[in-house]
Amino acid sequence: MLTTERSDGAAKGFRATQKVSTNPTISQKRTFTFSNFKSIFLISPDVQFENAKTLIALLVVAAAIFFSSDFELPVRAAIGLGATVTAFAFFRLVHLSSEIAQETVEPNVLHDTLEHMPHGLAHWGANAQLIWCNRAYRDLMGLEKTNAEQGTSYSDIMSEATNPITFDAHKDNQNHRLVIAKCADDKTIRIEDISDPAHNFVTVITDCTDHFKATRAKKKLEQQYRELAKQYHAEKLAAETASRSKTSFLAHLSHDMRTPLNHIIGFADLVQHEPYGPLGDKRYGNYIADIKRSGESLLASFAAILDLAQLEGGETVQNNQDVDMYKFVQQSLRRHTARATRAGLKLEAQNICDSHVEADPALLRRMIDNLMDNAIRFTQDGGSIVLNCWCGSDGVVLEVTDSGIGMPKERLELLSQPFILGEAAFSKEHSGLGLGIATSRAIAELSNGSLVIDSNPGIGTTVAITLPTKSEDSTLEKAA
After folding, report:
1. Can you tell me whether residue 251 is helix, strand or coil?
2. I want to staple 360 with a disulfide (CB 3.0 to 4.6 A). Which of 144, 163, 318, 395 is the partner?
3. Are 305 and 435 within 8 A, CB to CB?
4. CB of 9 closer than 8 Å to CB of 196
């Protein structure tokens, strides 16, 4: 700890703050008085009041004797003087005892307060000998009370202490030293020595176990967070790379397949017209028609794959215009009314708002067509389909709601992915690839919107698309 070789033994610092007198004459006098009259402290106020009444009565009797003519003047004078001296001595004794009681009680209160503090405190003299220490100091240092008595040297205290076992000095100046130490019972304590100019010094010990455990736990969590962030970043890059690879593969596959399909469709159409003479058997004409029909279907599928790849890759060129949502919804209803009627379905619009969005009309039309196609396909005869358009303060919501077969919640999480079909798709004849929802989602996100699906088996499905409304700033820019 701190060195104290240059101390001169002056009573300053922590010892002086306790108002402990260092004058031997006063100490002896007060000790003598206290030892002779300590029973005064035990006298209750009622007893003191009775004694005072007795003393007053004694003074009255002495005064009566002094003024009485039955006694000689010297006798009366002696009795009066004796009574006066006795009264003065009594009152002086009571006053002195109260002063001694006050000076004795205050240090005891301070001592009890410091003794029960949770922090370890020790006061050392200029010759590095212990003046006083509290119970917390002994407990934290692993000392018995007999090993930490007044006058014990600092070196003896350190040799008897079982704590701490390791030290980590954080500050070591001439008058101030700070050490973080590890104890044998796995506690972490903070030992601080503070010296005054007279080279007396005070040791303050604080139990910092909880603080350091929390600090270590925080560092561990931060390390885990950094590792998870690093892992997330790596996985995100891998997912983006895989997505780009998938998009590139689909684009190249679609492009490479469309060329031979165009040849197949073209030659099938040529053979079907028999420019170089009849084919012979009429069944050949039916075969050629099937070849052409299959080629056109396959070409449409590859075209849808290429469109999705371009949308997800951000390669689709948008031709944004001012789209009137009221007219857009009305046109969508007219396009699908005939097909819904043939399927025995009721198609209507319960709410159409009068708002405008900034988007590509062709992409919006393809998005709504995909959703309406799914709704008509998976709704039984006698069902209904509702196309709504809701206006909000910052956007427009397009809703396609059907009373179809619906789907479970776990299936919804996969439905927005390409080539994922609902379970009912396998029970009906259709030529879809499961790209309708994925394409609609890509168009909504490309238009700065989003797509949400809610469905319940046997009740129906609702697909909601949010689109931002046209801002006034863009309108002013175009007008300028």
Report:
1. helix
2. 318
3. yes
4. no
Contact indicator for 123, 16 with CB cutoff of 8 Å: no
CA-to-CA distance for 94 and 86, rounded, in angstroms?
Answer: 12
Q: Using CB atoms within 10 A of its CB, is residue 48 exposed (0-12), middle (13-18) or buried (19+)?
A: exposed
Cα torsion 65, 70, 72, 75: sign? negative
How far apart are alpha carbons 354 and 391 in whole angstroms?
A: 8
Cβ neighbours of 195 (radius 10 Å) = 22
Give the whole-angstrom CA distance, residue 181 versus residue 164.
6
Mean pLDDT for each 10-residue chunk of the chain (480 residues)? 36 36 37 40 54 64 61 63 64 59 61 85 88 90 86 86 84 85 87 83 90 90 93 89 76 76 87 84 86 86 76 76 90 92 91 86 90 90 91 86 86 65 47 72 88 89 88 44
Structure tokens at 231: 């892992």
pLDDT at position 469:
81
CA distance 256 to 302: 10
Q: For domain 120-211, give the fold.
A: Beta-Lactamase (3.30.450)
**Are 325 and 352 spatial neighbours (Cβ–Cβ below 8 Å)?**
yes
Instruction: Give the separation between CA 66 and CA 86, rounded to whole angstroms.
Output: 16
Fold of 321-479: Heat Shock Protein 90 (3.30.565)
Cβ contact 130:154 at 8 Å = yes
